[in-house]
Amino acid sequence: MPISLGELATRFGCELDGDPDTRVGQVASLSAAGPGDLGFFTNSRLASQLVATRASAVVARDEDAAAAPCAVLVSDNPYATFARIATLLHPPAPVHPGVHARASVDPDARVAASAEIGPGAVIGAGTVVGERCVVGPGCFVGPDCRLGDDSRLVANVTLARQVTLGERCLVHPGAVIGADGFGNAMTPEGWVKVPQLGGVRIGNDVEIGANTTIDCGALEDTVIGNGVRIDNLVMIAHNVHVGDHTAVAAMTGIAGSSHIGARCMLAGQAGVVGHISICDDVVVSGQGMVSKDITEPGVYASSFPVEPVRDWNRRVARFRRLDNVFDRVTALEKKQS
Amino acid sequence: MPISLGELATRFGCELDGDPDTRVGQVASLSAAGPGDLGFFTNSRLASQLVATRASAVVARDEDAAAAPCAVLVSDNPYATFARIATLLHPPAPVHPGVHARASVDPDARVAASAEIGPGAVIGAGTVVGERCVVGPGCFVGPDCRLGDDSRLVANVTLARQVTLGERCLVHPGAVIGADGFGNAMTPEGWVKVPQLGGVRIGNDVEIGANTTIDCGALEDTVIGNGVRIDNLVMIAHNVHVGDHTAVAAMTGIAGSSHIGARCMLAGQAGVVGHISICDDVVVSGQGMVSKDITEPGVYASSFPVEPVRDWNRRVARFRRLDNVFDRVTALEKKQS
Amino acid sequence: MPISLGELATRFGCELDGDPDTRVGQVASLSAAGPGDLGFFTNSRLASQLVATRASAVVARDEDAAAAPCAVLVSDNPYATFARIATLLHPPAPVHPGVHARASVDPDARVAASAEIGPGAVIGAGTVVGERCVVGPGCFVGPDCRLGDDSRLVANVTLARQVTLGERCLVHPGAVIGADGFGNAMTPEGWVKVPQLGGVRIGNDVEIGANTTIDCGALEDTVIGNGVRIDNLVMIAHNVHVGDHTAVAAMTGIAGSSHIGARCMLAGQAGVVGHISICDDVVVSGQGMVSKDITEPGVYASSFPVEPVRDWNRRVARFRRLDNVFDRVTALEKKQS
Known about the structure:
3 copies of one chain form a homotrimer. By secondary structure, chain A is of the alpha/beta class. Chain A folds into 3 domains: 3-89, MurE/MurF, N-terminal domain (Udp-n-acetylmuramoylalanyl-d-glutamate--2,6- Diaminopimelate Ligase, Chain: A, domain 1, 3-Layer(aba) Sandwich); 98-300, Hexapeptide repeat proteins (UDP N-Acetylglucosamine Acyltransferase, domain 1, 3 Solenoid); 309-337.
């Protein structure tokens, strides 16, 4: 259903540079867009694409508007405005209320009549599924879980047990939430399993990526704040706390009982050891290893970029002889003095 | 069902400092515990919580007993004793024998009458499921597998084919065992797949984490010893051997044909290259990269902790000029001599 | 069905050193092989196994043939020839055409009569499943997907939506293809989700490992070339392009919009940041971090091998004092001049 630029400008608080009656029906990249499409421009490296775009309109900053060959919805945050318009033009699939004939709902579960339970889905005892939720095909929602209104489990998601999900959460396929934490006590005869009895509490508006795992707590809960964004293949161990609006990129691991502040960003393949705290507004770059508390906001790093292997190996060899160079410098200093 | 401290002391070989008739019904953290709860104390940093706990009893070392405001079950290994008592107080969910109407069991499979096969589970030809096993909802157990007595696949677990699981194993959701190893032969026309014909043999009392993958062997089997503990999102490649009672933390990867000894501990995000051996009793710290044989027990490391990115970038630049400082020192030495 | 060495030699273009009427029925490792088995030899470290093998025949290079105590199929690329013969002797499980009674196929999907749809599988609207495809138990194939002829999803695979798979592709359990990319726009109120509207296009003869995730594109498609091999637990983010015949080992992550060339090899746990390009024929070693364009073919590295932790910690301390040694050398140079 195409929408006029005038309506979009009003609804999303943009100034409009162009004809308010022009209509757009979908979003597209600058290079692929055609008539009826809306693009966006934020990255000056794509300036040549902006100039050449065939889109009917773009979302852009004021200072970039002049370069556009089409109508411009002017925004201080073009990417966010574009995201909101794209959500309007391309809403999530509608919910089809009802329990599929091949789903299994425990008699002691409570599923809202407006919720959709897909084929092969299983809902355990004591679980509550809120209004307009979607539990997709093949999902397993174990006992004593709670899905807030408008939350969606796409497909093949597992909530093992005792998982509370807030409202408007989105969980991608293969994610496993509420499996046992990795708790083992060493004895001379081997490991003894430490029962994992806590649950997982997840706030509102949280998105959890494909094949990510969030373990239940040992005695108390693992806690994910509101508005948190978690990418694919992330590991969040038992009793971790993740603060509101923090984003965790793919393949990052957070070990047991660590606390991550609000509005942090952990880039891909980062690692956080157990039992530490990271304050609010910390950015950890890719493959960074956080091994003790971080108490100051800022950007932190610890990974080396690749080099040709011959160069790299020579540097590693030098690195291993750092003692040698320090010793030689000390010897030289002694002689000189 | 609450149990008296006297009975717990007898059963678990603890000295009891307190009233043997006091009963505890559940475990809890020191700070959350109330009357009827059992806590434990091992970490001196939590001493203030011990002093203030409202638990009816705690498990603690002899030297810490005096500080507790409640009864104490005295143990040399309080964490293990606590784990055992917690297992008694909070046993795993009971097994409900029978094959769910929506499960699919191949006519050539053999499932013990005492086993539970959940909705949507599929059991392949030639597979044997032992006494009191649980194959949870959505699990796929392919052909020619064998589950030892009392083993459990929680939900959405895949045993692709030819996987032998010992007794009392516990496999968490999303784990995939017995998928093809990554075997490819290079040719001028591209990769040729090398059929992966081995299986996976897993010992007794093994726990395998959510979304972990353990590939089948190429010609012979991949082998996991007794009492091994594997966390979430771990990768164990074809023909790897993991020794008894070794623990592998989340996101660690072990490449093809490597052998890990007994009682090793691989911390999170560690990597082991292919075709090497690690002896018994080796600890590899987080993000450590093992690229050749380790023949001596001990702790090994190779990761840098994060620093503020400006400091880090300066260090990386220095690192890349290590040749320069070595050369300059050599020049200075020549001049001096 | 055993095959004569004469026939194998003809079919695979090998010279035969031995009796053409000897038959082999299966492949085996040199050490486990017995009469009727075929082994292969490429690794000089296994020379003693070659000499002692009880195999009826081996595939080997001309220069190694003399050492074999059995017939030899001589090949310039013994591993590839062995792989092809092994595929002939151990073909994939046959396809059993038909839709299982417990599968759910949308009325607007089109499934070839020769395809096999397993129990619990779900096929969405607008999806086309080609000839002789296998959609295994528990797989979810969402709307608007296309599976080329002879492609197989083993079990519990998810194609979320709008995924095009070429011919003869093999997708292992737990893989998730076409889930939303990680697109979020920051605002003062928190993250705004950027709808992910692209799909995933995958070429012919691609193999995708267990629990790997390949996200759909944001506006345009994520693209995987022909003959690509992807191992387990790999992350391929939105709008990545992977060139033909590239191999990506386990736990490697490629961030959004990066382009990987043809015939590259990314070893385990490697990371590629977003929005960069890697040219053809690049090898990145294990745990390597690629943070900017690579324009020259070659081998690249950036990981340190483990050392005993005491040595490692001393080196890290030295590393952190690199400024100091540079400064001291400069001071010495000044004094000398």
